[in-house]
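F.,

This is the one I mentioned.
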């Protein structure tokens, strides 16, 4: 079961012109922002990653705005785990449940999930907040990650699972986020 005090949110490469080419991009952007806002309400650490922003462009404005007050972890590898800063900070968090969002499903998100699973983390794919340029590649990536041991979920599912009860201030804010 997901627990907010054992989870982190990993945001993978929602950046540059490539982000504008994602399958159902507006739904994808919306779900990524919902997950970021929900993580903030639940005090879940966020690991924001960008791949070669000097070449691929920065995180798109709508997502960057939701991440205000944070700085991205810049990587050269497809997997976030190839960045020593990411790996060190994740390990230092002491948390073992990974909420994974970003792009592309079949490349950077897949390789990150694969590496995290190999390191013993419990990986939750927030599938409404994961995309690729084509629906086919998105599906292939998600299927490969699930076959490797990741769990498939969605924004609303994970937020309410971590809340556990349908009352209180955090519940009210999360309810507004998913509406």
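My design for it:
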């Amino acid at each position: 079961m997901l627990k907010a005090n054992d989870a982190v949110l990993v945001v993978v490469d929602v950046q540059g012109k490539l982000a504008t080419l994602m399958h159902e991009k507006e739904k994808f952007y919306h779900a990524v922002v919902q997950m970021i806002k929900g993580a903030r309400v639940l005090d879940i650490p966020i690991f924001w990653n960008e791949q070669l922003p000097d070449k691929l462009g920065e995180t798109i404005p709508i997502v960057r705005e939701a991440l205000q007050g944070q700085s991205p972890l810049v990587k050269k590898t497809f997997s976030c785990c190839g960045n020593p800063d990411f790996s060190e900070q994740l390990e230092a968090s002491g948390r073992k449940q990974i909420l994974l969002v970003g792009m592309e499903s079949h490349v950077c998100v897949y390789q990150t999930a694969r590496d995290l699973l190999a390191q013993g983390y419990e990986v939750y794919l927030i599938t409404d907040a994961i995309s690729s340029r084509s629906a086919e590649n998105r599906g292939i990536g998600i299927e490969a990650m699930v076959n490797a041991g990741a769990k498939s979920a969605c924004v609303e599912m994970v937020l309410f699972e971590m809340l556990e009860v349908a009352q209180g201030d955090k519940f009210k804010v999360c309810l507004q986020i998913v509406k």
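The chain is about 50% helix and 20% strand.

Talk soon.
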